[in-house]
Amino acid sequence: MGEGRRSGLRSRAWFDNPDNIDMTALYVERYLNFGLSLEELRSDKPIIGIAQTGSDLSPCNRHHLVLAERMREGIREAGGIAMEFPVHPIQETGKRPTAGLDRNLAYLGLVEALYGYPLDGVILTTGCDKTTPALLMAAATVNLPAIALSVGPMLNGWFKGERTGSGTIVWHARQLLAAGKIDDEGFIRLVASSAPSTGFCNTMGTASTMNSLAEALGMMLPGTAAIPAPYRDRQEAAYKTGLRIVDMVREDLKPSDIMTREAFHNAIVVNSAIGGSTNAPIHLAAIARHIGVELALKEWETVGHKVPLLVNLQPAGEYLGEDYYRAGSVPAVVSQLIEQGLIREGAMTVNGKTIGDNCRGVEIEDERVIRPFATPLMKDAGFVVFTGNLFDAAIMKTSVISPEFRARYLSNPDDPDAFEGPAVVFDGPEDYHHRIDDPSLGITPATLMFMRGAGPIGYPGAAEVVNMRPPSYLITEGITALPCIGDGRQSGTSGSPSILNASPEAAAMGGLALLRTGDRVRIDLNVGTVDVLIPDEELAERRRVLTEAGGFAYPASQTPWQEIQRSVVGQMNTGAILEGAEKYQRIAQT
Ligand code: FES
Ligand code: MG
What we know:
- With 590 residues, the chain is of the alpha/beta class.
- 36% of the residues lie in helices and 12% in strands.
- The chain is globular.
- Bound molecules: FE2/S2 (inorganic) cluster and magnesium ion.
- Its EC number is 4.2.1.-.
- Keywords: Iron, Iron-sulfur, Lyase, Metal-binding.
């Protein structure tokens, strides 16, 4: 399958290379250190890397340290040799200033490890938001046989008999705190209830999304993305993943055979049906570029917008990760989509079968959690791609627009899809936190809140800050959300209907850099435009003045990597990758 390879295993070039006995001796001598015999190391056993993302710094993925034992057993059982090694830690919630910086850094590090060490295949231990794309991006560049293993979500969180979902509960608890309904202690206890076990966020945030999409892309064994971390089935999935990667090496089944354009289209369709995160377009664009597949942002709308929301998980719905798994998870969702002809059934997956063969006929086990296609939670649940005079591209997750929001903004019978209002502009998250409750800003229910300086360059890595809560005085009056627009990202666990990922960002002198508080802005959800209602000449003049003043100001870099990444990172509509890295492709074959 795929392009040809040299005879034998890639690792033979290190350990059994008659043309270079000097180097072979050097390599063999030190790798014996962890208990292999000389014969074993020089045998025809494939060497399988376990790219370990779990650590104390990365608690969402920490359970992979336990699962690695079962992966090793599977690898050994199938006749391979396991070599586990660490991946640069990425923890979505713990990393300052943003975990967005770590995705590309972990990518770089893993590419070096996979390319430069004696590996024939690799297990990618995925989980917390950016770990999944970082590892898939590296596997795409290197193109070594690779299989992803999700660490799985946490068990459901509960508080006073109600499900509390990770991340999502934070947005809710902040509103309760701002409204004076709970105190600081109550705030912490409510939030802590949502994290009852090991695993990643149990809501349909970026972690659940990206793992579901890794499975939809074909890079994970069917039915394994959503098994909760503590479940017995999760251990079994680790074992089977270990077994399978050895055979993938023998079959030479590589990421380029699996992550095709068809596979990306399947992932987009699945993302709509699960109510997936607004971070998914960034990460899929990045993976696609590294594997050399053309994927335009607009395809999220053309391929994905008309797909209904089937999965009833927070933040768009009510259930959590355990319920999703028990209801049938990705295969049950894909099966519904197959019946409608929405899935490219011929796309290959890691188990050597097509996605069609894996998922056709899989039944939903609980229709409260996964709805049949005929009775969705919402029609047209995919993203809408926006453009206009403030940016070239941005997206909105329409599945989280609440009925109250619709009633407030989209009730003009003459203009049912559009609304306009005065802008209040914040320059980065610190500015927002300082000023949001300042009454002199004059924020009313008609205000449109803008966040800028939060993109990959402005706030290195791009901050998840576009979803902004209104000032406390409005929350007390029952206004819990205002329209938010910005060049940052938004947590996948947020239910806010924001227009985000605006590219180019203000720091790259996109149109948002020219916006001023008080400008009127019009949003049209039907044609997908956001425009500031001032003449082009005025915008051009503002651009001239700002450019002469040195451009849009943003904070200085605090670390060497921030500076390096800022100098080469692209914009979010094209994946925010390290520009130039995409020309290195299929390097395991070189
Ligand atoms: Fe790691 Fe949500 S913070 S998965
Ligand atoms: Mg996130």
